[in-house]
Design brief:
Elements lengths: L1 H19 L24 H6 L1 H4 L2 H15 L7 E4 L5 H8 L5 E5 L2 H14 L4 E4 L12 E6 L10 H14 E12 L1 H7 L3 E6 L3 E9 L5 E10 L3 E11 L3 H10 L2 E10 L15 E8 L7 H10 L1
Parallel strand pairs: 1-2, 1-4, 2-3, 4-5
Antiparallel strand pairs: 5-11, 6-7, 7-8, 8-9, 10-11
Helix pairs in contact: 4-5
């Protein structure tokens, strides 16, 4: 009797779990289902599967870093922040190449833990933190270079949050410090995004995607349904990313106090799967210089006030 009851309850729990993974079915407006903080939940193990052909390919990472190092003329003695670093693919590769003052920060605890584990496994001196790009827990004037790579800019619902990110980057950069952003080409995607697609992820998983523009045409709204051939729907998730043109991003950087803004062309990943590249298909590379005076950090400012 007890065993039967245990088995019956276990079955109910299984049914409940499957119910949570069901799709919403057809919806009339993708935009209505996008959580304002979608980026808190989506960057997990499934992300490394669905986007792994681009964000988990060492060949692509090597090629990108060759390009970024050349553009910035990076030297090993510079202190570098890899902001929104994900699982640390760029930070770790920089460390492998002899850059010893590299730090990474990301909002996803899962990805940060992956990065830390890989650094420990390889014996690499890279520090990874979990945190919000709008409020960086670093002292002012800390870094020579900040990198925002892999289309990790423009996730917020309000453009002012993007401005807060840039202001924080300016604060933690040294005067004349450099910023490099690798972000989706919004002008191109606004006209060429795929409205519907699907692709295999390995032999047993596949992904269905729907996309549309937001009502103001400033963001690309995406829906992603991840399924397994035996277990059915695993995830049904919605997200939105801002479509920055070269001109719009340049103006935002100027407003945030950056100068010497330069566009360095486009980058397209050499994906081995090469099925649906989404917003990673065509990206622009933009650099800017932090145009500010050397301001004392808070502790130094307090000491100066007391002595006077």
């Amino acid at each position: 009797m007890k065993r039967g009851k245990i088995k019956k309850n276990s079955s109910r729990r299984g049914k409940k779990r499957r119910h949570r993974n069901r799709t919403l079915g057809a919806v009339s407006s993708l935009e209505e289902y996008v959580p304002p903080d979608w980026w808190r939940r989506i960057f997990n193990a499934f992300y490394l599967k669905t986007d792994g052909d681009v964000v988990n390919d060492q060949h692509i990472t090597n090629h990108e870093l060759d390009l970024f190092i050349e553009i910035l003329k990076l030297s090993p003695d510079e202190r570098i922040l890899d902001l929104c670093c994900g699982q640390g693919r760029h930070s770790l590769e920089l460390a492998r190449r002899g850059f010893l003052k590299v730090e990474g920060l990301d909002r996803s605890r899962y990805l940060v833990e992956k990065a830390r584990a890989q650094a420990k496994k390889e014996g690499l001196e890279v520090r990874f933190r979990e945190g919000d790009a709008r409020e960086l827990h670093y002292t002012a004037n800390t870094f020579d270079v900040v990198l925002i790579l892999g289309n990790s800019f423009g996730y917020f619902e309000d453009i002012q949050d993007d401005m807060e990110v840039l202001k924080e980057v300016s604060r933690v950069l040294k005067p004349m410090g450099r910023l490099l952003i690798d972000v989706a080409d919004g002008e191109y995607l606004r006209e060429h995004f795929e409205k519907r697609s699907w692709e295999w992820i390995g032999n047993r998983h596949y992904v269905l995607r729907e996309r549309t523009l937001s009502k103001d045409r400033q963001r690309l709204i995406s829906r992603e349904i991840i399924a397994h051939i035996g277990n059915g729907i695993i995830r049904d998730q919605f997200y939105a990313e801002r479509l920055y043109t070269r001109e719009a991003l340049s103006e935002l950087l100027r407003q945030a106090g950056f100068g010497d803004i330069c566009i360095h062309g486009e980058v397209t990943p050499d994906s081995q799967r090469n099925q649906d590249l989404g917003m990673m298909e065509r990206r622009i590379i933009i650099t800017a210089v932090c145009m500010k005076e050397l301001a004392p950090v808070q502790g130094e400012r307090e000491k100066a006030t007391m002595s006077s």
